[in-house]
Q: What sequence folds into this?
């Protein structure tokens, strides 16, 4: 048997893309509730003022709020061991500024965790997944202000205490290293005060981004320390995008550029969260980009004392790096940049499909950190066709996942300590990158469309039954 006993098979979601009920039960608006719908050709926008007649897909999303019992029953039918989800910060503290939490919001998650417990499914909870309360964006320009650390810690203390008997596994921030990208300043850092243009056109202010990231590092470390001190049964992880990079040739210039891109994108944030200090290469990067991180005197100790217990990441694609300006071009639809790899195929959205890159990534990460790993996002966004009889034949998704699971197994044989696997959007959710429903990932089809119509019926795709067999066989049966 390749995967160990107790391997955590399951699926992943996020409240802002799945939960809906954006203004029900005392919930306040999050930054995602100010995101319009979009498409491949028309980027979504963030509007400081909610526009009448504009579609905001997170308002209903695929309505886990009213369907959680049905959805958890589907997860149980597939045999899930773990259910990755997030708590919506603004459902607990509607503006993030309150000193007393919203009891109705807390009760909702009580009910969710009770249902998961009845189903024998372990929750894996992301504390903040692209849904900072919008009031903190307006008042503080999001994580750029140190004040938001206190708001976050108040929120963490509340949910830790409330759900201490329900949740063992926590992740502090989703894809924290997305904040190293201009796009990440929008959703992960909330540093978009007054912004209303297409997300793709966010102005790049590196000083703001990296100061905001520093505040997130401190907040994450403080949360880890609280958990370790008060709830020793908790396991707290980080969560990063892992964007595998290859030099496009053996030219040393390409190799050095690739190494730099790996550091900038993949290693910078996790080096701090796993090792507990800023990496040596950060100094040159900050000097060359005129970035001056403002720290409080105790911040370095906080980072040292708040190292995570395990490393989790999303993996969707890889890219190549070239130092030759004559051949560099943005890989269409490939959000991590770089140039196209001629040996790989691409998804409907232009993301290059690289299963062996997952094995490579797992080995690189584990060699570097030597702590347990978990793949908490991986999947294929595709156009799914609903047949007249209600079936969805998504053989392309099965093939994608099969190849990636095979490479996970190879990494385990290589010696990687792999905890589990939660493919992204195990049920259809709103796309984070484009704000559309047409880009579907799930094993379960949700009858919801880009124009907001649909009755939200849940339908099992062919991949539902395939993944059920994968879990039952602990990854041995991939046919």
A:
């Amino acid at each position: 048997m390749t995967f160990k006993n107790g391997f955590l098979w399951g699926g992943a979601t996020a409240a802002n893309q799945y939960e809906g009920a954006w203004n029900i039960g005392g919930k306040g608006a999050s930054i995602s509730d100010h995101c319009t719908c979009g498409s491949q050709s028309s980027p979504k926008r963030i509007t400081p003022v909610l526009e009448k007649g504009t579609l905001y897909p997170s308002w209903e999303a695929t309505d886990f709020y009213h369907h959680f019992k049905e959805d958890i029953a589907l997860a149980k039918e597939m045999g899930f061991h773990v259910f990755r989800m997030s708590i919506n910060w603004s459902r607990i503290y509607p503006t993030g500024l309150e000193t007393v939490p919203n009891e109705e919001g807390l009760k909702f998650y009580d009910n969710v965790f009770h249902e998961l417990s009845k189903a024998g499914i372990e929750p894996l909870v992301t504390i903040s997944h692209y849904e900072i309360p919008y009031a903190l964006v307006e008042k503080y320009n999001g994580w750029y202000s140190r004040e938001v650390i206190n708001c976050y810690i108040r929120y963490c203390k509340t949910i830790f205490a409330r759900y201490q008997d329900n949740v063992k596994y926590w992740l502090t921030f989703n894809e924290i290293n997305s904040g190293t990208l201009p796009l990440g300043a929008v959703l992960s850092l909330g540093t978009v005060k007054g912004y209303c243009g297409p997300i793709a056109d966010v102005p790049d202010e590196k000083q703001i981004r990296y100061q905001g990231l520093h505040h997130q590092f401190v907040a994450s470390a403080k949360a880890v320390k609280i958990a370790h001190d008060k709830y020793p049964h908790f396991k707290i992880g980080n969560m990063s995008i892992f964007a595998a990079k290859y030099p496009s040739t053996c030219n040393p210039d390409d190799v050095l550029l690739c190494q730099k891109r790996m550091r900038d994108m993949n290693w910078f944030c996790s080096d701090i969260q796993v090792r507990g200090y800023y990496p040596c290469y950060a100094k040159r990067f900050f000097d060359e980009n005129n970035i001056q991180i403002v720290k409080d005197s105790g911040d370095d100790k906080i980072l040292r004392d708040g190292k995570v217990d395990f490393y989790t990441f999303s993996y969707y694609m890889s890219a190549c790096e070239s130092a030759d300006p004559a051949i560099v071009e943005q890989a269409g639809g490939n959000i991590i940049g770089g140039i196209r790899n001629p040996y790989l195929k691409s998804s409907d959205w232009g993301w290059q499909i690289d299963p062996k890159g997952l094995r490579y990534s797992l080995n690189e990460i584990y060699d570097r950190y030597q702590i347990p790993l978990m793949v908490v996002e991986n999947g294929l966004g595709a156009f799914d066709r609903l047949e007249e009889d209600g079936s969805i034949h998504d053989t392309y998704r099965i093939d994608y996942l099969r190849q990636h699971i095979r490479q996970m197994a190879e990494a385990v044989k290589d010696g990687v300590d792999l905890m589990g696997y939660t493919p992204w959007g195990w049920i259809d959710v709103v796309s984070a990158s484009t704000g559309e429903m047409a880009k579907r990932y799930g094993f379960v089809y949700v009858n919801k469309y880009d124009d907001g119509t649909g009755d939200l019926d849940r339908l099992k795709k062919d991949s539902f039954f395939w993944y059920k067999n994968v879990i039952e066989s602990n990854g041995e049966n991939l046919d």
Observations:
- Residues 8-472 form a domain with the TIM Barrel fold (CATH 3.20.20.80).
- The chain is about 35% helix and 15% strand.
- The chain has a mean pLDDT of 95.
- The first helix runs from residue 15 to 18.
